[in-house]
Every structure is written in C-alpha cells, then in structure tokens.
Amino acid sequence: MTVKRHVVILFLTAFAIALSGAPKPLLRLQHDAEVLYTEFSPDGKRVATASKDKTARVWDAQNGKPVGQPIQHDDEVAVARFSPNGKWIVTGCADGTARVWDVETGKPVTPSMKHPDAPASSGYVEWAEFSTDGKRIVTASLGGTARVWDSATGKPLTEPMEHESKIYSAHFSSDGNRIVTASADGTARVWDAESGKPTTDLLVEDGRVYTAEFSPDGKLVLTACQDHFAQLWDAQTGKLVNNPLKQLEGVHFAQFSPDGAKILTLSANKACTWDVITGKLLIDSIQQGPDSMGFISAEFSRDGKRIVTASADKTARVWDAQTGKQLGEPMKHEAELRSAKFSPDGKRIVTAAEDKTARVWDAPR
C-alpha cells in the first residue's frame, strides 16, 4: 500500500467516524505493538500502559505526553500497576520477571524479581500488584507460583506459593494479611501474606479458575470458573457460601462492587450482576448484538453506578449498573480491546487494544 493511499484511508475512516457520531478519544497513546493493559494512577493524573513491544510507559493523563523514559523489559510486558501513592509502578513480564520503577523518571527502583520457574516460557508473570500500604508486591506466574516481595528492595518475603498449573491472578486482602490465588489447575487458595503458607484447604472448582478476589471486608472470596459458575467462599474456612452463580457460558471474570453488595460476572457474550447476600440475579441484559464478538474484561466504576466492558468487537461500552442499559455510544478502536478502566473520579475511561494504542475517553453517564 502506498503512503498516499494509506493517508486517504485514514482520512476516510476518521471522516466516517465523525459522521456516525461515535465518541472521539481525548488522547491516543501510541506503542509499537499491542497494548495489553492500562490503568489510571490513584490521583488520575497519569496513565500506565503495558505492551508487547517490550515496554511499559507512563503518560500524562491530561495531554498524553510521555512521563519519564520508556520502561524496558526483555519480552512483552503483561501488566503495569501503580503503587497506592502513585510514585512507583510494578511491571510483570513474559521473561519471568517483575520490577518496580519510578513513575517520574522510568528508572528501576528494585532489581528484577525473578520467579523460580523463569526463564522458561511458562514463567510468564501474568499479574502483579501492590499491597494497600504499598510495602509489598504479589506476583502471579504462568509457571504455577505466586511470590511476595519487598517493594523497596525487590527481595522475596515468602517461599513460592505453588499450584499444579498456571496461576492467573493473585490478590491481597484489603488489610494486606492474606492473598488469594486463582489457577488453571481448577483451584483457588487463600494464603498468609507473611509466611506464604495456606490458610484454607483448596477451593475446588470443575474447571480453570480464571480470577479470585476478596470482598472489600475480607470475609468472602469470589471465584470465576470455566465451568459456567462464579462461587462465593468463606475466606476463613474455605467453605462454600450460597449457591453457585450460574451463566450459560464459562465465567472468565468476576468482581465485587466497591461496596461489596453486588457481584459482576462476565462470560464471552453476557455480563450479569448478582446480590451477594441472596445470590439473586439482578441484571442479565448486558450483552452486545448477535453479530458482536465476545467480552474481554469488565469493571465497576468506583461509585458502583456504572460498568465498563472491553470487547473483541473493537469497542468499549458503558452500562448502567442498576438497569443494564447502555450509556452513550461505543468507544471504538481498530482492533480487539484488551482492557478498559475508569479513572478514580469516574469521569474518564482508558482503553487498551491490539491496534497498538491506548486511548482516553470521556466516560458516558
């Protein structure tokens, strides 16, 4: 394709979007390969992105300019998470390492934190996050281990927490005392964050457990499973609470609302909300048209009033969490989306996509 023809196509695409009334992004943040993850900083002033181009970047959320130098890894970067005070970010990489970086300079704070299963391809660090006090980091590896690290020194604080297959996620409880992991071996487990020892028996499902998280008060664990179910468990005893929350397709994501009163579940073609106490289905109408491709991710806004979804149909959409009705028009990329996140104040959304961009949008209300 000639340069001239390429420019004409881009112009016609932009013109068609303008005529259609589709939302226009406030900012377009460019990488050299697919953007796998993005989020706002706790104060909403920065955006972090993680990309297959082997870099993570920090951007000014107002003008889209890069902040600091690119954060370089030796392989694709799966995730980039801000610390609670917004001064550091932790990255997780396909090379089996995680690392803490200074937000303003892009320079490393710690040495590389290497999982024991690295550098094998299975050592891919799929997830990393700070504890609520910012002093520790938990990482989850597709090699089947999770680790806790000192965020200032990068030193391991526990022995590896092991599953028999890939670990997709690892989350701290709100008080930082426990960690819950989700694994492809069909189990989730609660661990003591200080010792790395299990505090419950395995929470056993009938298929891959894609996500597991604590309720805001730390009393419950929520799991999302390939077997069409989301389940609630007592975080102290590991026993099931209420009946399973069943969808017609495998549930690949589940999240508590910020107040802990509702649950959001996501399958390929539908998002549902449920009452935590009764297990009653509240909304099952969040779905796209019959020709649309599946949902990739979803999350509540901080006030719990809206839900944003990211989809393989190249769009992000916002939904009323009380009624399930779509708010505004779809936010469109040129390729499949990987994530969509609200800003802390709920006024903006940042999306990440396989078209090598992250984009910031006004959030429909």
Please, how many helices? 1
Inertia-based shape: globular
Largest sheet: 4 strands, antiparallel
The CATH class is: Mainly Beta
Number of strands: 32
Mean pLDDT: 91
Coarse structural class: mainly beta
> Which homologous superfamily in CATH is the superfamily?
YVTN repeat-like/Quinoprotein amine dehydrogenase
Radius of gyration from the CA trace?
20 Å
Task: Please bin the fraction of helical residues.
Answer: under 10%
The strand line-up of the biggest sheet is: 1-32-31-30
Might you state the CATH topology name?
Methylamine Dehydrogenase, Chain H
Describe this structure in words.
This protein has 365 residues and is mainly β. It has a single domain, classed as Methylamine Dehydrogenase, Chain H. Helices cover 5% and strands 48% of the residues. The chain has one helix and 32 strands. It is globular and about 50 Å long. Mean pLDDT is 91; it is low at 1-14.
